[in-house]
Design brief:
By secondary structure, the chain is α/β, with parallel strands linked by helices. The chain contains 17 helices and seven strands.
């Protein structure tokens, strides 16, 4: 028993004097590891880290190929990992030209500079050739969008047929009893005709000789001090040359007014293709003493001076189309305490003399278009009882132009 105890004591002392270490294994078990084994294990770990570092340096050259470089480093202990990594980089750049254009160009330049440059130029030329048809197609589509109506949709005969139908609808619209509805319906039809008829007057010179309605006394003032008038809006629909000779307060009769039309027909250019006369409402206020008679055409009377004006225009401009506009119905007719006259009598004189000289007649009075005696129409389209505002001048201009183009469509 004593021998066993002595043996155990010496064994314990021997174990304590031998340098040892422990390490943890799976499932929390422990095993004894000698210093030699620990040093070998540390050396193997250092070698692995060094190889990993070399692999990382080589793999940095290849985009998106880091993992492939790592595998090459682990499978090749003879130092060829970097070469394979470089090869993988080149293959990656070939597979992804959009992402590695600059690096690919550098590689090709180093190997075959001349060939690489020619290849690049040919590629750019090919791209340019490919892009050109697309650009031409886009421009063609934009052009088609901006042209309406297209000739591919309606033929000239179809457009002519539609416009003729609209002129027939105008005649029907003149019979509408509601004055406001009538004016709106007429303007809707006018807009359709102008949108489809093209510009048959584009090479013409149109001269307007008239009073304050032509001068734009009810419109917004423009830079030249005049107001917007119906001729300004006619100009939006045609490239015709337009001459406005309107003066506020101008009558036909000129016994005491130098602005009267009988004194200003000489202002009409000799090369006028279309002449439009729009006046007479100021003669209504001159009174019956200056009205005169068609049976006795005397100078200084309404009848006599209209005849003189028409006659001189007919002689001086034999090839021009002359249109006489009869002023629309208006609230001025109600001022019987001041004028004691009937506008229809004044309109009849212009109509009869216009027919005598073969002039065209635009009878707004008979049509009932833009009757300022109607409260709704006056509030919507007029500055006062006789002068249209900007909107009124716009719809008036459209309707006058529809009459002017009718003979040219």
């Amino acid at each position: 028993m004593k021998k066993l105890q002595v043996f155990s004591l010496f064994l314990t002392i021997g174990i304590l004097c031998c340098p040892i270490s422990t390490r943890a294994k799976e499932a929390f078990t422990w095993e004894t590891v000698s210093d030699t084994e620990q040093k070998d294990e540390q050396k193997h770990k250092d070698d692995s880290e060094k190889k990993q570092s070399d692999t990382d340096d080589a793999g940095e050259k290849g985009a998106f190929q880091w993992s492939e470089g790592e595998d090459s480093a682990q499978n090749n202990d003879d130092g060829t990992a970097a070469d394979k990594s470089g090869q993988n980089d080149t293959e990656t750049e070939t597979d992804n030209p959009a992402e590695n254009t600059d690096e690919k160009d550098d590689t090709e330049t180093e190997t075959e500079p001349g060939k690489a440059s020619e290849s690049t130029d040919e590629t750019n030329e090919d791209k340019t050739d490919e892009d050109t048809p697309d650009e031409d197609k886009e421009e063609e589509e934009e052009t088609l969008k901006g042209s309406y109506p297209s000739e591919s949709i309606y033929s000239e005969s179809e457009i002519k047929e539609m416009i003729d139908e609209k002129y027939e609808e105008l005649e029907e619209a003149y019979q509408i009893k509601d004055k406001f509805k009538k004016t709106k319906t007429i303007d809707r039809i006018d807009s359709f005709i102008l949108n489809f008829c093209g510009d048959p007057l584009k090479d013409k010179k149109i001269v307007f000789l008239g009073d304050s309605i032509t001068a734009g006394n009810g419109g917004t003032l423009t830079l030249d001090g005049s107001g917007l008038d119906y001729t300004n809006f006619i100009a939006k629909y045609t490239d015709a040359s337009i001459v406005n000779l309107g003066i506020g307060g101008a009558p036909f009769e000129g016994s005491d007014n130098d602005d009267a039309l009988v004194h200003r027909y000489t202002d009409i250019p000799k090369d006028a293709d279309i002449i439009v006369l729009f006046a007479g409402i100021n003669d209504l206020f001159a009174g019956s003493e200056k009205f005169g008679s068609l049976s006795k055409l005397e100078e200084g009377t309404y009848c006599g001076d209209i005849h003189e004006t028409f006659q001189q225009i007919s002689k001086r401009h034999p090839d021009a189309d002359v249109h006489v506009i009869i002023t629309y119905p208006n609230k001025m007719e109600e001022y019987q305490q001041f004028i004691n006259e009937n506008w229809q009598d004044y309109a009849d004189v212009q109509i009869k003399l216009a027919k005598r000289f073969g002039f065209h007649i635009i009878n707004l009075y008979e049509e009932g278009f833009m009757d300022s005696g109607d409260n709704k129409i006056r509030n919507a389209f007029f500055k006062d009882d006789i002068h249209p505002d900007d909107l009124g001048s716009e719809i008036l201009g459209r309707h006058i132009l529809v009459h002017l183009v009718e003979a040219y469509i």
